[in-house]
């Protein structure tokens, strides 16, 4: 969104709440990745996704076009890439035997929403930031290639979650139970994304928006509880 976007790669922390240590090389890579996605997002919002070339984004960041593709495999990934944080969260949290799969996913979503709300609250120009955030959602829905890429990302996350859930239950990823469980759980991401757009007005505080979005996600989660309770939780 206009200005800086949320740095999702810096989201995950250890269970004790201490940020994961980061070397100079990793920090430089994260900062470059963030600069590329910030610049691309701003240009896409200003001119439209299809009107901006990757070479223009590279020039604006003073890097080569090859460098851009070293960080992002496609143009769409510049603003819709799956972060390693999200992948790591699914791998570790869904596999945790101390938590139900539903509680694990709700925890991941709460972390992401909290980071987004904190980012929103830190922006100096709230009106401009919120308008840009709404425009960002509109850009995705209005651009077929972005919608297709978003669907492809969701399929990748479902495949990952299916494998984790299958291992957890001592089943095969080809079995229907882990497949439908993963599909249902990943559907909560769509609920949260849409709720963020619905509740992002110009008067509510970030905390109020966060509470409203959380309420919507938990309403959707209630519908999943009964079905997921029957999912095998220990190896057969």
Secondary-structure topology with pairs:
Blueprint: H1 24-47, H2 54-60, H3 65-71, H4 77-80, H5 84-94, H6 101-122, H7 126-142, H8 144-169, H9 176-199, H10 206-229
Helix pairs in contact: 1-2, 5-6, 5-8, 6-9, 6-10, 8-9, 9-10
What would the keywords be for this entry?
globular; 70% helix; single chain; Tetracycline Repressor, domain 2
Walk me through the structure.
With 236 residues, this protein is mostly helical. It has one domain (8-229): Tetracycline Repressor, domain 2 (Orthogonal Bundle), CATH 1.10.357. The protein has ten helices and no strands. Helix 5 (84-94) packs parallel to helix 8 (144-169), helix 6 (101-122) packs parallel to helix 9 (176-199) and helix 8 crosses helix 9. The radius of gyration is 19 Å and the shape is globular.
Count of alpha/pi helices: 10
Assign the CATH topology: Tetracycline Repressor, domain 2
The H-level CATH homologous superfamily, spelled out, is Tetracycline Repressor, domain 2
β-strand amount: under 5%
How would you classify the helix and strand content by structural class?
mainly alpha
Fraction of residues in H or I helices: over 70%
